[in-house]
Design brief:
368 residues, alpha+beta, 60s Ribosomal Protein L30, Chain: A, Phosphoribosyl-aminoimidazole Synthetase, Chain A, domain 2, 7-stranded mixed β-sheet, 4-stranded mixed β-sheet, 11 helices, ligase, purine biosynthesis, Phosphoribosylformylglycinamidine cyclo-ligase, PurM-like_C_dom
């Protein structure tokens, strides 16, 4: 029997039955991320994770990160394709954790929507769960909240947070970087999950719809834009284990672009010139820049332009690290070298997001 309170809540726009169905539909995908460390299964008030393994660490440091996927969700909603946005979320969160050398342990997600469409919510969570499995991260909990009147019936946003662990003496960062270190670039899978407000502005200004076919992009515009963010965690953890001490710092190229994100993980007083000629930005960046009437260089502070992650590596081991990345399906190349020689740094990006780091600028012309 349905209570009058339940009927009133439904009339107000909140369907608790739909929420329960969404949980049932996502249970198997979420459960697939659970190893023996996860206790209690799906649906508890809090996720439980057995941290006994941390007793084997000398000085375990917990690493945590939280993020969303920005306005990329607007394209997913427009195309009614929802199973890719979850990988974007995991990549934005978990690949920030591996930057310090940490192994991810568990993650939680949050989905706010105007109306719960069970199959849609399950598709989003299925994408999150599959990406969690690919990165070795347990999805231990989450929340789906209906916000009728605040969000439209087909609107939603996603966010997540994750926790990882690293030995204190294995933390990667500026303190390890030295003069002569090599900067290795790792290819992105496309736009990833940054700069979509600019993307949407460019398309709207040019009258291009998400459902339009684009020969230049090689497919339907919206589908090309929804290409999921590459996941670097598992390959990088493998490289760190295979070549201990070789990697000194990592930088996840997200909001702010290439130079600013690399500057954050370099020591004060160091600088890098990244050679544009070492890579060719994929078609999606060239097409969007052409639509905007701007050169690729103008988007360097917004889009990744083909580089999703950067590694600062001991020069003598750079070739071995690149070979190890390539063997794990991550295309990589040498893009620059760290220097501490005194020089004028006008025109360089110097630190970012409150970090007093090194200085970075891009030089030369992009490869064709």
């Amino acid at each position: 029997m349905t209570s009058s309170a339940s009927r009133s809540y439904a009339e107000a726009g909140v369907d608790t039955a739909a929420g329960d169905l969404a949980v049932e539909l996502m249970k198997s995908a979420v459960g697939a991320t659970h190893g023996p460390q996860v206790l209690g299964g799906v649906g508890g008030f809090a996720g439980l994770f057995d941290a006994s393994a941390l007793l084997g660490y000398r000085r375990p440091l917990l690493a945590t990160s939280t993020d969303g996927v920005g306005t990329k969700v607007a394209i997913a909603q427009a195309l009614d394709i929802h199973d890719t946005i979850g990988q974007d979320l995991v990549a934005m969160v978990v690949d920030d954790i591996v930057v310090v050398g940490a192994t991810p342990l568990f993650m939680t997600d949050y989905i706010a929507c105007g109306k719960v469409h069970p199959e849609r919510i399950a598709a989003i969570v299925r994408g999150i769960a599959e990406a969690c499995s690919a990165t070795g991260t347990a999805l231990v909990g989450g929340e789906t909240a209906e916000h009728p009147g605040l969000l439209g019936a087909d609107d939603y946003d996603v966010a997540g947070a994750a926790v990882g662990v690293v030995e204190a003496d294995a933390v990667l960062g500026p303190e390890r970087v030295t003069d002569g270190d090599v900067v290795i670039a790792m290819a992105s899978s496309g736009l990833h999950s940054n700069g979509f407000s600019l993307v949407r502005h460019i398309l709207a200004k040019n009258g291009v719809g998400y459902h339009d076919q684009s020969d230049a992009l090689g497919g339907v515009v919206g589908r090309v834009l929804l290409e999921p963010t590459a996941l670097y965690t598992a390959p990088l953890l493998g490289v760190l284990a295979e070549h201990p001490g070789a990697v000194h710092a990592l930088s996840h190229v997200t909001g702010g672009g290439i130079a600013a994100n690399l500057a954050r993980v370099l020591p004060v007083g160091s600088w890098v010139e990244l050679d544009r000629g070492t890579w060719s930005p994929p078609a999606v960046f060239r097409v969007l820049s052409d639509m905007a009437g701007d050169p690729l260089e103008s988007a360097e502070g917004t889009w990744n332009l083909g580089i999703g992650m950067l590694a600062v590596v001991e020069a003598a081991q750079a070739a071995a690290v690149m070979a190890a990345l390539d063997a794990r399906g991550v295309r990589s190349w040498q893009a620059g070298t760290v220097s501490t020689a005194r020089r004028e740094l006008a025109g360089f990006e110097q630190g970012a997001k409150g970090v007093d780091g090194g200085a970075v600028r891009l030089v030369g012309s992009y490869a064709v």
